[in-house]
Specification:
By secondary structure, this protein is an alpha/beta fold. Strands 3-2-1-4-5-6 form a 6-stranded parallel β-sheet, with helices on both faces. Strand 5, helix 6 and strand 6 form a beta-alpha-beta unit. The longest helix is centred in the middle third of the chain and has 32 residues. The structure holds nicotinamide-adenine-dinucleotide (NAD) and uridine-5'-diphosphate-glucuronic acid.
């Protein structure tokens, strides 16, 4: 199959490289000249574990190429995937579909012969209809079908997720397009990945439903964590106790500083808008969005409480800036609100992230000092805050940290340490949802009636 992937970002580049690895001929198209130059010079424009060797190997084998010339690539393609961004539209939370529609117009002018146009970007219900309309109106002679094939990969484990998906969703009523999509994914039959066929609108909604449900699950356990702190319970045990029930499942029940990233925040907002417009409001998702927003700010208050109620003039060290480990992606990372709130309260911030500092610099206040190791961050700091659970932070030398810090305070927003171990090392330790997660005065619980 000759595949064109429009957009060489986190989804486009990973999907393109994986399709090439399946044996297809793939051309990735991007408008960003820096991204294309990096790829041509053998540098990865994003950090994703394993991507560099996958891209290198398939480029060397001649199955993967990059270009800025969309028309030429599309004119030779059997299948064109649209994998451009669909960020939140500024001010109102709707998905900004201008990149998708822009790509559709360019594709329309270039298609020759029957071509399947696939939306891999996450797009609201009905976007496929609009893409179809744009292509027919721009080029009435075009022979094409528009398919929805949402992507479920996670950053940090994107290649594994793409090659071993729990399911592949294909939304189309066109028989020829359906057969071609099955051919594209045929190499995955060996892994027994189920392919779910459905209509296009259903496929579009399925993607939002999945992301919103996961965001809601995280938010649920985060609220349980807050409750645990108030009543002297342990959220990690609650999570285990719930998660072993197979109807619930143990994944996405890790309490933390609130979900971030390029997808959950924008997709929950977009789903809320779709539902409101359809006069079928999704109140659970509305609550999820607002609880998660408040949580990020609450994390800064937790840090301030753990440092004795005042951070003005103090140095606070931040370990981890990206929204999750194993990515350089800073989009909607909880670190952004936490750092801003601490700076607003007069703290001086020192920060380190293994891969995210390049993306972090323009997003964080200019006063932040970027360091090269966790120990440099800790030097003279009045508190150290673990915001992202990179492996490099899981076994820090606590004695060494204590020696260089102004005061030994560790705030672990990902619960990667054992409280007793950190306290035994002489630290004040605050965490999430484990009895005294940082709230000093949990209320006395009512006694059973005597
Ligand atoms: P991204 O911002 O990393 O990449 C998008 C790329 O598209 C950019 O490089 C941009 O230059 C390029 N582009 C935009 N318009 C173009 C055009 N007309 N022609 C050529 N290139 C163009 O975005 P992403 O994170 O890969 O997300 C893409 C889509 O996939 C979004 O809808 C997102 O919701 C969805 N998605 C993302 C993930 C993820 O983990 N990031 C997972 C599943 C689904
Ligand atoms: C998420 C989904 O997991 C993917 O299936 C989906 O394809 C993708 O969004 C998308 O549509 O773009 P991603 O954003 O890469 O993937 O990362 P996740 O692992 O889902 O983490 C999202 C956020 O939730 C992170 O901030 C993470 O720290 C947080 N999280 C996750 C928790 O706080 N607790 C958990 O138990 C799990």
């Amino acid at each position: 199959m000759r595949i064109v992937m429009i957009g060489a970002g986190y989804v486009g580049l990973v999907s393109g490289a994986c399709f090439a690895d399946f044996g297809h001929d793939v051309i990735c198209v991007d408008k960003d000249p820096d991204r294309l130059n990096a790829l041509r010079e053998g540098r990865m424009p994003i950090y994703e574990p394993g991507l560099d060797s996958l891209v290198k190997e398939n480029s060397e084998q001649g199955r993967l190429d990059y270009t800025g010339e969309l028309a030429k690539a599309v004119s030779q393609a059997d299948i064109v995937f649209i994998a451009v961004g669909t960020p939140s539209r500024r001010g109102d939370g709707y998905a900004d579909l201008s990149y998708v529609y822009g790509a559709a117009r360019e594709i329309a002018a270039a298609v020759t012969g029957f071509t399947v146009v696939v939306t891999k970007s996450t797009v609201p219900v009905g976007t496929g209809d609009e893409v179809e309309r744009i292509i027919s109106e721009t080029n009435p002679a075009a022979e094409f079908a528009v398919v929805s094939n949402p992507e479920f990969l996670r950053e940090g484990s994107a290649i594994e997720d793409f090659k071993r998906p729990d399911r592949i969703v294909i939304g189309t009523d066109n028989e020829q397009a359906r057969k071609m999509m099955e051919e594209v994914y045929r190499p995955l039959y060996l892994n027994a990945s189920p392919i779910l066929h459905m209509n296009r609108r259903t496929a579009e909604l399925t993607k939002y439903a999945a992301n919103a449900f996961l965001a809601m699950k995280i938010t649920f356990i985060n609220e349980m964590a807050d409750l645990c702190e108030r009543v002297g319970a342990d959220v990690q045990d609650v999570s285990r106790g719930m998660g072993m029930d197979q109807r619930i499942g143990s994944k996405f029940l890790h309490a933390g500083p609130g979900y971030g990233g390029s997808c959950f925040p924008k997709d929950t907002l977009a789903l809320v808008k779709t539902a409101q417009d359809a006069d079928s409001p999704t109140r659970l998702i509305e609550a999820t969005v607002s609880v998660n927003d408040q949580r990020k700010r609450a994390m800064a208050r937790k840090v301030i409480r753990a440092t004795g109620g005042k951070v003005r003039g103090k140095t606070i060290g931040i370990l981890g800036l990206t929204f999750k480990p194993n990515t350089d992606d800073m989009r909607e990372s909880p670190s952004i609100s936490i750092v801003q709130a601490l700076v607003d309260k007069g703290a001086h911030i020192k920060a380190y992230d293994p891969e995210g500092m390049h993306q972090a610099r323009p997003l964080l206040p200019s006063q932040v000092t970027f360091c090269t190791t966790p120990y440099e961050v800790a030097n003279q700091a009045s508190a150290l805050v673990i915001v992202t659970e990179w492996n490099a932070f899981r076994s820090l030398d606590l004695d060494r940290l204590k020696k260089v810090m102004a005061s030994p305070v560790l705030i672990d927003l990902r619960n990667i340490y054992k409280p007793e171990q950190v306290r035994a090392a002489g630290f004040v330790y605050a965490c999430i949802g484990r009895s005294d997660g940082g709230v000093p005065d949990a209320p006395e619980m009512p006694r059973a009636a005597e």
